[in-house]
Amino acid sequence: MKKTAILFGMMFLIIQAASLSFPQKIKIPSYTTPSIRPQGPANFFDKPEEYLNWQAQNLLNMAEEITGRFPPQVQEPIERYMAMLMLDAVFHDVSAPERPAVQKFHHRRMELAAKEMENTRVVEGAIIWKMYDMGFVIRTNSVTIGFDLIRGHFVGAEGFPIEDFLMTRIIDQCDAHFISHRHGDHADPWVVQTFIDQGKPVVAPPDLWPEEPIFDAITHLDRKAHSIQSLKIQSGKQELKVVVYPGHQGERILNNVVLIISPEGLSFCQTGDQSYDQDFNWIDTVGKNHRVDVLMPNCWGRNPPRTAQGFNPRLIIPGHENELGHSIDHREAYVLDYSRWQVPYPKLIMTWGESYHYVPKKK
Questions:
Q1: Are residues 57 and 200 in the same domain?
Q2: What is the dihedral of CA 6, 85, 154, 271, to 10 degrees?
Q3: Domain CATH code at residue 205
Q4: Where does the chain have alpha helices with state H?
Q5: Alpha carbon of 138 to those of 74, 128, 129, 145, 314: distances in Å?
Q6: Strand, helix or coil at 28?
Q7: Same domain (yes/no): 31, 150
Q8: For the whole prediction, is pTM greater than 0.70?
Q9: I need a labelling partner for 188 at 20 to 30 A (CA). Which of 22, 157, 197, 245 fits?
């Protein structure tokens, strides 16, 4: 219980500090929705785990209510910042993956994203859904692309992964899948097989499961900086332009950094776990060779200011925060993105299942 008191003391100090960073006039909403009012017994004497479960449930309820009222936006109100802080507090509990409230939150957020995909048609720009960990789904008027989609088994907590039928609904909406590298929080064999069974291409580095039968069914595009390749999708009815940058996680692990150009000319780059300094040789010149509409970098990657300058994107949406399969010191907090990615480019901090409608500014 002493740890909980310390945690909330730190939260109070952070919120006070945050108020100095948000000089706009703040209107505090009145949260009276019955579903988010804390409810429970009068006390939790001798029931510390029951209390922590109750606390997680109520923090997640409140955070979900606030993010619903204040969706992702570049000029972010402090209410949304506080909601992200509450999510960080819940997810940085060592036992978070096992808590029923966290598991239900994961399932609910992926269900929300799947339902939106099933009922969303894009007329202009693109809709970007942020999934779990480094997962993203992007839809333009003509195509829908998935990146690093996983069910959540890497977390190692029974009850946390979403069920196969829910992931199938998400896969059904996608035309292709791009996997950055071989780690289990980015590559899910069942997801890959389901894409392939549906006749949809899966693009991955050449060291992903080379000994497995599925290897020959995976598409291995050339890892060559700035070089545009073509990928047929929708049974050949559409074509994506793809640049596969030869990235790495550390020195040895191959990590595809893919730049996808849609038939509409919109471009999206997801970096996977890019984290090798020598790759700045090509990172520094990406924006000079190709337009990047939206950059989706791993939040903890090397030298965010230099990365942002090299890609020169119109918008940044970091990913990989709060991977619950990691120890809490490597579950990067959402609120740390505000300092890590202090760059002169618009950015959005998003949580699981949220979506954003990107429309490029007309010159």
A1: no
A2: -130
A3: 3.60.15.10
A4: 2-21, 48-69, 78-91, 100-118, 164-173, 189-197, 280-283, 286-289, 304-311, 337-340
A5: 18, 5, 6, 5, 16
A6: coil
A7: no
A8: yes
A9: 245
Q: How many domains does the chain have?
A: 2
Q: What CA–CA distances, in Å, run from 207 to 43, 45, 181, 196, 215?
A: 54, 53, 8, 18, 9
For residue 275, being part of any structural domain is answered with yes
Who contacts 116 (Cβ-Cβ below 8 Å, separation ≥6)? Answer: 127, 129, 355
Residue by residue, pLDDT tens for the chain (363 residues) are 445 544 545 454 444 444 434 333 334 344 445 555 666 777 888 888 999 999 999 999 999 999 999 999 999 999 999 999 999 999 999 999 999 999 999 999 999 999 999 999 999 999 999 999 999 999 999 999 999 999 999 999 999 999 999 999 999 999 999 999 999 999 999 999 999 999 999 999 999 999 999 999 999 999 999 999 999 999 999 999 999 999 999 999 999 999 999 999 999 999 999 999 999 999 999 999 999 999 999 999 999 999 999 999 999 999 999 999 999 999 999 999 999 999 999 999 999 999 999 999 875
| Packing angle, helices 164-173 and 100-118, rounded to 10 | 30
Q: Does the residue 105 lie in any domain?
A: no
Which residue range forms the structural domain that includes residue 220?
A: 122-358
Q: Cβ(347)–Cβ(296) under 8 Å?
A: no
C-alpha 206/C-alpha 116 separation (Å) is 33
- With respect to residue 112, please indicate whether it lies within any of the assigned structural domains: no
117 and 146 Cβ atoms separated by less than 8 Å: no
From the centroid of its chain, how far is CA 152? Answer: 13
- Residues 210 and 341 occupy one common structural domain: yes
Q: How big, in percent rounded to 5, are the helix, strand and coil portions of the chain?
A: 40, 15, 45
Q: Verify that 155 and 195 share a domain, yes or no.
A: yes
Domain annotation covers residue 104: no
| CA distances (Å), origin 132, targets 42, 86, 339, 346, 352 | 35, 17, 22, 22, 5
Tokens encoding 351 = 């949580």
For residues 69 and 149, state if they share a domain.
no
Q: Are residues 172 and 276 in the same domain?
A: yes
